[in-house]
Design a protein that fits this description.
GO molecular function: metallopeptidase activity
Oligomer: single chain
Low-confidence stretches: none
Number of helices: 9
Transmembrane segments: 90-113, 262-284, 309-328
Organism: Romboutsia sedimentorum
Helix content: 40-55%
Distance between the termini: 22 Å
Structural class: alpha+beta
Mean pLDDT: 84
Number of strands: 10
Shape: elongated
Strand content: 15-25%
Main location: membrane
Cofactor: Zn(2+)
Amino acid sequence: MTIIAALLLFSAIVFIHELGHFLFAKKAGVRVHEFAIGMGPKVFSTTKGDTQYSVRLLPLGGYVSMEGEDEESKDPKSFGAKSILQRASILFAGPFFNILFAIVLLIPVYMYIGTPSTTLGQIAPNSPAQKIGLQTDDKIININGNEIKSWNDVTNNLRNSDGDKVNIKVQRDKGTKEFSVVPQKNEQGNYIIGIGYKAEKNIFKSIAYAFTSTVDMTKQMVMFIGQLVTGTIPGGFGNSVAGPIGVVGIVSNAAKMGIINLVYIASIISLNLGVFNLLPIPALDGGRLVLLGLEAIRGGKKLDQNKEAMIHMAGFALLMGFMVFVTYKDILRLF
């Protein structure tokens, strides 16, 4: 059942991605031949207007087939007949819908587990925080003269201390108290003092935190991509990426741990798909957007259709090679 849940979840994420392309294509007046979820032979299909809606056997992808997307077409409703801005919006919509979907999924997660506050909920035994007298329910209002508005402010100030003494001002009961403490470096190389936050369950804060955490995760993904390009990934490339088999395994494990874990993993996968598709790699939405940018620079002069098709074919071959490699690594990890 967990594998079925993983496949359904992945199909839902792909559906959201393709729905973005589809809706903006329809809005721009592009003729859509097929809106498919899955790959391979058709399991189900129905036609409405000019568009065939189909579900295919392998739930590992999907596509929106538009008139004139990859070939010459004189149809005024073709993709190529639309303005650069319209085509860019269609391409960008897929990844953008995935990013929005990640935010939507995170909202119920944070409503359930709560969002970080600046009030202390945990004090680790024998930690620097306990030794100086910090207590549960103390509210941190200032660190080294910097106003504290969120838990990120707390962690950032401690991280930037470089192990030097920091001055912490807290609100306790109806008064305030000040403490000085020397942070300790943990195994990850971050400076900590042994405190945890008290979670707050509030729908408005959950919405806000879903946005901010999505931004933070996006930054981490971009950083990871930079490490991928420079070859500086901690633990090595093969141990840091996962293919379809690895993703199914991750989702299956999350499903065993409960619906909230499953939804959280789904949000990360959706965000990954959105960010990855915006990379300037041929055959991806990001690569197509780069070519549209070149067309705009050339004053609207389109690139040769055959050359563009060859560029995307090369990008697709590169992606397939990458997929085979990470799938091979997934299989090795299984054994």
